[in-house]
Amino acid sequence: MTLKKLGLVSLSSTLFFFSAKAQISSPDTSINDIAPIEIKAYFNAQSMLDLTTSARVVTKKLLESQAPSNFLSTLNTTTGLRMEERSPGSYRLALRGSMLRSPFGVRNTKIYIDEIPFTDASGNTYLNLLDPVGINSIQVIKGPDGSLYGPNSAGVLRFIPEGFGKPNNEKSIMVSGGSFGLFHQQLQVNHQVNENYSFSFDQAYLRSDGYRQHTGMDKLFFQTAHQWKYNSKGTLKVFGLYSDLGYQTPGGLTQQQYEEDPTQFRPAGGPFQSAKDQKAAIYNKTFIGGITNEYQINDNFKHVISIFGTNTDLENPFITNYETRDEKNIGLRTYLSYENLDKEDLLWEMQLGAEAQKGWYHVKNHENNLGEMGELTDVDNLKNGQHFYFLRAKTRIYQKLSAEASIGLNFNNIKFNRNIPGEEQAEGKIDFNNTWMPRFGLSYSATDNFAIRASVSKGYSIPTIAEVRSSDNRINQDLKPETGINYEAGIRYESKNRRFIADLAAYNYQMDNGIIRQLNEDGAEFFVNAGKIDQKGVEANILTQLIANENSEFLKGLIFSSNLTYQDYKFKEYKIGENDFSGNEVTSVPNWIWVNTLSFRFNKEFDFNILHNFTSSIPLNDANTVTADKYHVLQAKVSWLTSISPRYKLQLFVGADNLLNEKYSLGNDINAMGNRYFNAAPTRNFYGGVKVIL
């Protein structure tokens, strides 16, 4: 099938998993398990048909549908979202955007854990700290929404941890192993102590040797969440997470090296040692803690306040230097909510709130002497402060028309103090202009099953600390925030019994001052602004339950999903020196991503899940002279659940990744020095495990 033909098929996807414990009492039960009717996108739960924005919920069933060691393949079933893994533990994520700013981690997307920002004051998010055992669901809100969530130009992800929400008493332990030295262990305890107090404790250990040389990874993960209803009006939630993560970084390969031996690490070249000789790696120890109090003042008013903090100790021996970072963050998020539910024909609500974060970052660079700290070269102390205030109002008229408007006022600055050995101390302040962030959206229910929506919003994403003070060890005071206006329209249809769901969205985001990663002659990265970037996209998905028959002695259920993302991203005005890249495709963005899934539920509690991901070719430099080839990835998982006693259940599962044994690069280096663009993904590999459920 050619790409041109593929473009005519505006179908698309979502991934499923039928829990062996789920019982289909009606045709729509399984659909509801993987495509919830409601989402808590803006403060209060609301119908998916009522939303004025594009959104999706990645449920626990979906998270369990493929390999239990990460949620990469599951998240990639979401239209407009792309997650990459350069090597075990090294993740990148882009939502309606590109990987231009992402050497690793997340940029221009705001991420929360319930009400607590997971994205710190500097704008960085250590997504690789998480383990799927601690996540109950993931809410994805697409498109810029700085009015309510602070600076972002792509959207918001909200991870709902185990222990928050409806209490349950399930306990389980899982052990699995697989190709390339994979070992994964998970422990989960969900316990309801009484009708007012419940908690969850989640622990995991994950290790892997990796497909490539010098890609070993170890992670120890602990998480706990507590929920206490201390009176009829108040609920207190406590969250804590500690993760100790270490992974080797093999470095990118040239096209020739990639073709000759894709498993090799970056070899020595010129004045630079190899990745292995320099013991290139990242070691991250992070603690995150927060307390949220929710109080229902009366039938109309509710107040929510969260206080949180993080501490990160990070070491990064790299090919060119040895960096250490001590990062501390504190913050507060609070809002007052009013709901008028007295008249069904005129419902309205309003929220007024604020969020503030303060971060302290102590960054030191040494020479890297074959993995050992050498002479001190740079010392920087940076302080990042951001706070914003927001107001939102929404009304629903005659159960047909929903209208909402919100506005935020953002304040952001960075203070720095440089103590370079042998030089005079330097200090300064980068003050980004105070910015108003409006959003307006409409949704109209033409019928009980069909809704039309439209929105316009401003995107605004300030440079992160890692971009202002990148690996060239300079303070870039000229870097400007990304900004722009996003126009979007969409439709959603759900059949009466929810056996068929379809969603279509189109957007046009005109970005100014897009932030783009570059490398200097020493191989150190720095960032520049592109003049203008034209981002247009279409996202379409269908989800249908083809079979739902509890009386069958063979196949009890079958769900099909298909998900298509089309991204037409171009540089409109982008010049660096004598090079004019205007009109080129935006680096790192594939035009097409098409994901299809099939989920079978057989008799005797057998489940079989298949996932297919097609990604088109990807430009790897701004000149568009080098591209990564298109690829098809096929994954599958079989699981069986059985009772081994009145109290215990046993689940056995086996799975496979890259069944077609495709040779492809997942997590390319962008605008790479020495044409080292490629990070080979694993060949065909397998895993299997056992889970005991109490």
Question: Can you describe what's shown?
Answer:
- This protein is mainly beta.
- The chain has a single domain, classed as Maltoporin, Chain A, CATH 2.40.170.
- The strands form 6 sheets. The protein has a 22-stranded antiparallel beta barrel. It has a 5-stranded mixed sheet with strand order 3-9-10-7-8. A 3-stranded mixed sheet has the order 4-5-6.
- A hairpin with a 4-residue loop joins strand 17 and strand 18.
- It is a multi-pass membrane protein.
- It is found in: Cell outer membrane.
- Residues 50-155 form the TonB-dependent receptor plug domain.
| The CATH class | Mainly Beta
How far the N terminus sits from the C terminus, by CA atoms, comes to 47 Å
CATH architectural designation: Beta Barrel
In terms of per-residue confidence, which ranges show pLDDT below 50 for 5 or more consecutive residues?
1-28
Oligomer: single chain
- Tell me the CATH topology: Maltoporin, Chain A
Count of extended strands: 36
What's the domain count? Answer: 1
**Mean of residue pLDDT?**
91
Inertia-based shape:
globular
Strand content: over 45%
Mind describing the biggest β-sheet?
A: 22 strands, antiparallel, barrel
Radius of gyration: 24 Å
